[in-house]
Design brief:
single chain, 351 residues, alpha/beta, DHBP synthase, Rossmann fold, 2 domains, five-stranded parallel β-sheet, 12 helices, 33% helix, binds threonylcarbamoyladenylate, binds magnesium ion
């Protein structure tokens, strides 16, 4: 299949091109599109055949449910069995935005979209191109991240093309995304609201709006597999670069020294080594490749660069990656959740 790529300026949307994109979705085809978090691979959420195509294009296990993207709060009534008051509060505070809510599903949502689960994940993205595509298609759009399963999520249209060219009808190129890591997922189907995947919206922000403490799924914190995460997707080895990655955590000077000595050891073994550093430290490393995640003073830029840098490591065929740690104040938990998975929880702690 030829994959059509169209460029859309999010501040001046080309209506004709977007109508064409919407028609493809309505016809059951797949269209990748930008959201504020990462690029999504969209298909008609209520058409089981479209969902099956999504799993096939990504090579994704079919027990891993998809997020349904909506453009109006009233769309919720079509796909959720009941709308708890927490969902209204959270949507007033954070939608459109990087928050996904898990609710009991209605009959309208096919099992193919929810991986057979009785619940459905729902999000209203905060991106003019994504909202326009949903409206123009006349559908609700099921969209996982638009990467091949197991690769880092795409933050630019070129990443989508790398993984999915020839497998989907269209890629809408709306430029690089703003946030760079996937939405926060909150489960509202249990007695206490629980974060199943950390993201830009933090547990504190959610607790403030709900007036109750929001817990974090213990299954995503465990480094081993003693507890299973509740979101099926969190159990897979996601976000992983091809190279073996190690995170070095501790005081700045000690981290610099340790990483530089690890680089020397590995180069002596003939390995191509990359270091993931920051604007503040990048000059202090001597490796084959030194990549900067941005400034430590700007944690948003660190989230924005993460997946692009992991993809760069793949492109450069490095065999070993040593990375600084990024437990930054607000979204550090979300960033480290992705980093730890990329590193298979391999961390050297220096105190
Ligand atoms: O930011 C995002 O959420 C992006 C953009 C495109 O919106 N989408 C995204 O989708 O990250 P995906 O499919 O890559 O991740 C969805 C996650 C998976 O871990 C999946 O297991 C979980 O959401 N999930 C979906 N439905 C669920 C459900 N009913 N119960 C528990 N977890 C669910
Ligand atoms: Mg994904």
């Amino acid at each position: 299949m030829d994959t059509e790529i169209i460029k859309i300026n999010k501040d001046d949307i080309d209506e004709k091109l977007m109508e064409h994109a919407g028609e493809l979705i309505a016809k059951g085809e797949l269209v990748a599109f930008p959201t504020e978090t990462v690029y999504g691979l969209g298909g008609d959420a209520l058409d089981p055949e479209a969902s099956r195509k999504i799993y096939a294009a990504k090579g994704r296990p079919s027990d891993n449910p998809l997020i349904v993207h909506i453009s109006e709060f009233s769309d919720l009534k079509r796909i959720a069995k009941t709308i708890p008051p927490e969902a209204k509060k959270l949507s007033d505070a954070f939608w459109p935005g990087p928050l996904t809510m898990i609710l009991e599903k209605s009959e309208a949502v096919p099992d193919a979209t929810t991986g057979g689960m009785g619940t459905v994940a729902i999000r209203m993205p905060n991106h003019p191109v994504a909202l326009d595509l949903i409206r123009k298609s006349g559908c609700l759009i099921a969209a996982p991240s638009a990467n091949t399963s197991g690769r880092p999520s795409p933050t630019e249209a070129s990443h989508v093309a790398e993984d999915l060219s020839g497998k989907i009808a269209m890629i809408v190129d709306g430029g690089p995304v703003g946030i760079g890591i996937e939405s926060t997922i909150i489960d509202l189907t249990e007695s206490v609201p629980m974060v199943l995947r950390p993201g830009y919206i933090t547990p504190d922000m959610l607790s403030d709006v709900l007036g109750v403490e929001v817990v974090i799924d213990p299954g995503i914190i465990a480094a081993d597999d003693t507890r299973k995460p509740k979101a099926p997707g969190m159990k897979y080895k996601h976000y992983a670069p091809k190279a073996d990655m190690v995170i070095v955590d501790g005081p700045k000077e000690k981290v610099l020294q340790k990483i530089n000595s690890l680089v020397i050891d590995n180069r002596q073994e003939g390995k191509k080594v990359a270091v993931i550093a920051t604007e503040e430290t990048k000059e202090s490393y001597d490796a084959d490749v030194v990549l900067s995640m941005g400034s430590r003073r700007d944690e948003d830029s660190i989230a924005q660069h993460l997946y692009k840098i992991l993809r760069e490591c793949d492109d450069l065929d490095v065999e070993k990656i040593f990375s600084e740690s990024f437990s930054t104040p607000r979204i550090g938990q979300a960033i480290m959740n992705r980093m730890l998975k990329a590193a298979g929880h391999h961390v050297i702690n220096l105190d």
